[in-house]
Amino acid sequence: MIYTALLSIAIFQGIILGLVILKSSLFNSNSNKYLACLLFTISIKLLNHVFDIEGAFVRYPLLHIADNIEWVFLIPAFLFLFIKNRTDHAGKGKPKNYLFFIPFAYSAVLNIINDLDHVAGIYSFSESGIMIIQILGLVQLFLAVTFIPFLPIYSYFMIRHLKDSQEKKWILTLLTIVSLLLFVWLITALAGLFFNYDISSTMSALALFATFIIHWTAYKGIYKYKLAKNKDAVYNFLNNDSVISYPSLQIVQDSTPQEYKESITADNLYFQKLELLCKDQHIYTDSTLNREKVAEKLGISAGYLSQIVNIITGDNFAHYINQYRVEAVKEMISDPEYDNYNLLTMGLESGFTSKTTFYKAFKKVTGQTPNEYKNTIK
């Protein structure tokens, strides 16, 4: 009874935590959505385990179809894609994301076709059909012993791209404990398959360990602000801005709770990182730069990025970036090295896309046109 209660609590927490990550602008990003899916997958595995303990599969045999799907194929895929996007390691020549779900899709289709015979009794396989299913089952086994260990191992090499040492430590720990769960599960499943061992007790222990992963992710990833590093904002979100109360937190004036606004200050770590990207890496010189690109670099949603910039600077994101571009042009005008550059070339070098946007932004920031400014300092 206590065991199933612990599993049920973890299932509920995993689903709620996944929804929080997906729905809240504080945590939502392309990388974190894969973490949310990872939590959903672990919760599904635990739910099937609880159904098995409670005898639900005996009372409702068709549930076996969902249970026999190898959801475990999704765990390394979601974990890998989370790390891949977190490290900004998704570039040209990299495999498309959907390719990492092929083993799961193959396994799911094979098991469903097989269960329509064994569980649903819709049809019966002939002897040749059974032989084909067995051969396809060997392919599934091969995918399990290669795909499941490969992605976590490869993920260790990708973590080196992380610059933030605290973030690297947290993600490395997450990768280690999930990899340990996968490796022990795989070894146990193979032992049961080839040696007919009773693996029920080991699988029960693994299920309990999976509950720890969910609880640990909730504590370290949310409360200890590793998914969103603004500690005060996370605290206020968890205590005041639940996913039910504010399902779509927007940057509309006066629509954001006052406590949430007050939690975003100039020492916000995301804003500090944004400042470093502009001052040290000069990301503003990229003429295709937009909110979504910067938000992905920071590991947050575009909406939360807008909130940070708007609340701290009082300006929108575009004006914030244009200020850096204008300052870059002003430095070029003052530097003799750029005497051979005309003003439009300087603007384009600084990230502006056209003469019109360049002159308009320069006038807005300095109160002068580029020509007027140049004449005042020469």
UniProtKB/TrEMBL annotation:
Transmembrane parts of this sequence: 6-22, 34-51, 63-83, 95-113, 133-159, 171-195, 201-219
UniProtKB keywords: DNA-binding, Membrane, Transcription, Transcription regulation, Transmembrane, Transmembrane helix
Pfam families, sorted: HTH_18
GO molecular-function terms, A-Z: DNA-binding transcription factor activity; sequence-specific DNA binding
SMART domains, alphabetized: HTH_ARAC
Keyword Manganese carried by entry: no
HTH araC/xylS-type domain: residues covered: 280-376
Protein name from the UniProt record: AraC family transcriptional regulator
